[in-house]
Specification:
The chain is built from ten helices and twelve strands. The protein has helices at 18-28, 46-55, 79-84, 101-111, 128-139, 151-165, 175-178, 226-233, 242-257, 263-277; strands at 4-10, 34-40, 58-63, 76-77, 89-91, 96-98, 120-124, 143-147, 171-172, 185-188, 214-217, 237-239. The model has no long low-confidence stretch (mean pLDDT 96).
Length: 278
């Protein structure tokens, strides 16, 4: 009978694949006393809702939309979470909230032998995923530029990282400027192409698509997005976001348990679950 519990909170949260991923890892490691649950908490009762897992012995939680920013008021955000401006993992034993997205993203790039040190990297988007990506990329030594449909949001992201993390030198470009910037990697942090809007792409407006670049699309459903097809049509390499999902989860897993989980297994069960949804 499980007596060590962790889980994910969000609203809605029924779509989350995290329980499948984490519980498969627990079973593979014979950690039968551990269980990962999904808990739906409406935004207007977040503070009260947090008491339930905390008071009922949960060791920690993941945090998904729409709570990633609001929860910062009720935990102790670490340096990484403050820099990114969002918490996605909490350890109730210390009440510290962290963010595993940047490390999960950079870890997956490295797993695909993508080295960003000294390289120009273009980030598409200006939301929380983009903040995590820029934070991770700059920390890994990349020269980063940002493109967003609303330029003011991109400038606000740059300002936030300057103030919160001391990050300077991030460029803000229009898409046509970006197409001529000479980057080796494009990272999609928007929801363009996400199921069910599978034919949408963030690379629009007739801007020429660069040749022979690598695209990393944080979207993982579908496995091949419209942006990834654009990349492949221009002799580029396309990588989907499933590995990032697994690796950011693996960081949380190890934080709570002290055990490194089997990432290959986590990715496999995620892919199998997604294949059933297609």
């Amino acid at each position: 009978m499980p007596n060590k519990r962790v889980g994910v909170i969000g609203f809605p949260v029924e779509h989350s694949l995290s329980p499948i991923m984490h519980n498969a890892a627990f079973r593979a490691l014979n950690m039968d006393d551990w269980q990962y649950d999904a808990m739906s908490i409406p935004p207007d009762i977040l503070r009260l809702g947090l008491r339930e897992p905390r008071d009922h012995g949960y060791i920690g939680i993941n945090v998904t939309v729409p709570h990633k920013e609001a929860i910062m008021e009720y935990v102790e955000p670490d340096e990484k979470a403050r820099a990114i401006g969002a918490v996605n993992t909490v350890d109730f034993r210390s009440n510290i909230g962290t963010n595993t997205d940047a490390d999960g993203f950079i870890s997956d790039l490295r797993a695909h032998d993508v080295n960003v040190a000294g390289e120009r990297v273009l980030v598409l988007g200006a939301g929380g995923a983009a903040r995590a990506a820029v934070y991770g990329l700059v920390g890994a030594g990349a020269d980063v530029a940002l493109v967003n449909r609303t330029r003011a949001r991109a400038l606000a992201l740059v300002d936030h990282l300057r103030v919160a993390a001391g990050i300077d030198g991030v460029h803000v470009l229009a898409l046509d400027e970006a197409s001529r910037w000479g980057m080796s990697l494009i990272v999609n942090c928007t929801s363009a192409g996400l199921h069910p809007n599978v034919e949408t792409t963030p690379w629009t407006d007739g801007a020429p698509f660069p040749t022979a670049v690598t695209v990393y699309d944080m979207v993982y459903r579908p496995a091949i997005t419209a942006l990834m097809r654009q990349c492949q049509a221009h002799d580029g390499r396309a990588i989907g976001g499933l590995g990032m999902l697994a690796r950011q989860g693996a960081i949380a897993f190890e934080l709570w348990t002290g055990v490194a989980p089997p990432i290959d297994l986590m990715q496999r069960v995620l892919r199998e679950a997604l294949d059933k949804l297609e």
